[in-house]
Amino acid sequence: MVHAYILIQTEVGKSASVAKEIEQIPGVTQAEDVTGPYDVIVRAEASSVDDLGKLVMARVQAVEGITRTLTCPVVHF
Questions:
Q1: Domain 2-74 has CATH 3.40.50.2000
Q2: Considering only CA atoms, which of 32, 36, 30, 40 is closest in space to residue 69?
Q3: Is the pLDDT of residue 1 over 90?
Q4: Most distant CA pair in the chain, distance
Q5: Cα–Cα nearest to 28, from 9, 10, 55
Q6: In this model, does residue 76 exceed pLDDT 90?
Q7: What pLDDT is stored for residue 32 in this prediction?
Q8: What pLDDT score does 57 carry?
């Protein structure tokens, strides 16, 4: 299982609605609106890196109000 944090920038005033919509996507385990350079931080999981990419590109980035994403896979050493 691959886990990742997805850092999201949204249009002004859209962070709460974006977080609420993203939280409903299968594979997303948590979505919270935050302050700082990013507006929403998402914790997601997928069975492979390819599936994670599909989740981000096909589902998360399709949410209205998102302007930019940065995906950070979790690594275990």
A1: no
A2: 40
A3: yes
A4: 38
A5: 55
A6: no
A7: 97
A8: 95
**Domain spans, the chain:** 2-74
Q: Do residues 1 and 74 touch, judged by C-beta distance below 8 A?
A: no
Concatenated DSSP letters of 32-73: EE-SSS-SEEEEEEESSHHHHHHIIIIIITTSTTEEEEEEEE
The residue among 77, 20, 49 whose CA lies nearest residue 8 is 20
Query: What letter represents residue 24's amino acid?
Result: Q
Give the pair of three-digit tokens for residue 39.
């507006």
Handedness of CA 27, 33, 36, 39 (dihedral sign): positive
Please report the pLDDT score of residue 23 as a whole number.
Answer: 97
Tens of pLDDT, residues 29-75: 999 999 999 999 999 999 999 999 999 999 999 999 999 999 999 99
CA gyration radius, the chain: 12
